[in-house]
Amino acid sequence: MLAGFKKFVMQGNVMDLAVGVIVGAAFSAVVKSLTDHILMPLIAAIFGQPNFDGNFVWHLGGGEIQFGSFLTAVVNFFIVAFALYFFLVLPMNKLRERHAKPAAEAPEDPQLILLKEIRDELRAKRD
């Protein structure tokens, strides 16, 4: 039973997933620091507050619609997506392109070769 579990854990997909989760958690801390310590102070300099949590609140009956909090979450999402794309996805794609093997030319179909020969002979007879 333990041998089967060990085999499962040592498979490439499980190990890749584990590494991805760990790297993702570490990268999340970097992006959070970028957001909290660099980008949000810039937003505070422009808009007067580091986030939109207290803004755009509508009271409706007994509840509140807090559009500002939603807007802060959307801004954070785009910051994370931007950082992921430019710091991870783009470099990985360039690395893959650099190390990609050129596609081998597929051998020409024998029927296509025969048809080309027939075409060439018909042209020669016509001329």
TrEMBL record:
Lineage, highest ranks first: Bacteria, Bacillati, Actinomycetota, Actinomycetes, Actinomycetales
Keyword terms, alphabetized: Cell membrane, Ion channel, Ion transport, Membrane, Transmembrane, Transmembrane helix, Transport
Protein name: Large-conductance mechanosensitive channel
Subcellular location: Cell membrane; Membrane
Subunit structure and binding partners: Homopentamer.
Pfam families assigned: MscL
Highest taxon above the source species: Bacteria
Gene designation: mscL
Membrane topology according to the record: Multi-pass membrane protein
GO molecular function: mechanosensitive monoatomic ion channel activity
Stretches that traverse the bilayer: 12-31, 67-90
PANTHER family per record: LARGE-CONDUCTANCE MECHANOSENSITIVE CHANNEL (PTHR30266:SF2), MECHANOSENSITIVE CHANNEL MSCL (PTHR30266)
